[in-house]
Write the structure tokens for this entry.
Amino acid sequence: MCETCGCGEHKHPHDHTHDHDHHDHHNHTKVVDLNIDIMAHNNIEAALNRGFFMGRKIFCINMVSSPGSGKTTILEKTVSRLITGRKIYVIEGDQQTFLDSDRIKKTGAPAYQINTGNGCHLDAHMIGKALKELDPDPQSFLFIENVGNLVCPAMFDLGENKRVLIASVTEGEDKPLKYPLMFETAHLCIINKSDLSPYVDFRKDDFSRNALSVNHKLQIIEISAKTGDGMDLWYEWINSQVSDMLPTSP
Amino acid sequence: MHELSLAEEVIRLAVSEAKSHNAISVSEITLEIGNLSGIDADAFESALAILSENSIVGKNGIKIVRKKGTGICQSCGIEFEMERRIDECPGCHSLPSEIKGGSEFRVVSLVLELEDSN
């Protein structure tokens, strides 16, 4: 199509005058209708990761939370205590340090640290690169500890099977209403630090009601990674999810 | 500030479209951003303006169409406008059973400047 007048013919003479020098240039404009979702690039990479997990029968959990809710402590305990007969791998995300992956490696699990620099979240491309390095065994578990932030990671699908949100009793029961997208996209919400309940004004019923108002399918459990209280509920949840996803072979 | 990395994605997309059409610049980008999408449209606009400075994208041609969220009330079934994800039905104060609009976050179209020698 002719880009000047849109007439469909290439070789007709345009009726503008050619009184300019033939070495001059003039511009044409062209409208391109894209209708592309801006998350599409991430979502395609997430689909590649998901295919990788399906192919290797790996169960992947994306753990999201605000900073200081106890994600790494929960993971340290989980890597040591979760009885599955499966190998456990961990991808750690934070802006600057190797502190978290060092903590996980001490438990014996292979861990890969992603430093996002100034980035506030992990994206599917970063996970794809980490998977090449980590090369997890078939039929294993992969835990991804996202950057501590209740806003940005919500929008980024990493290809995980399940998203687990860690909250803690020190954070206040209004968090689900303040960060609704994160609560809406989670499958399980862990309320950590239950051992501190006697010392803070956290009202679990209000928290649960707020969380369910943004995501009525959300499952909620209360634990203390420090004392081990409720950790069995977490392990049971993981195992039930895996058996739902991977039926045992005959 | 996930707005910045996603604005980079928009600039990358615009530049790659310009290249594939042999365009010299992008004079206009039209985007749709829903108010329930998780994107702060103002922050996104600022990020695009900053990133376009040293690119072939004209920063005055960034057009953001803001889309409003729509919920369907789970009790009375009416459709109502939503500013936030936790908004209730104005009639009966129930939560929506379905959110229809407001999640838009897309590049609708580009205007490319093509150079043509005569």
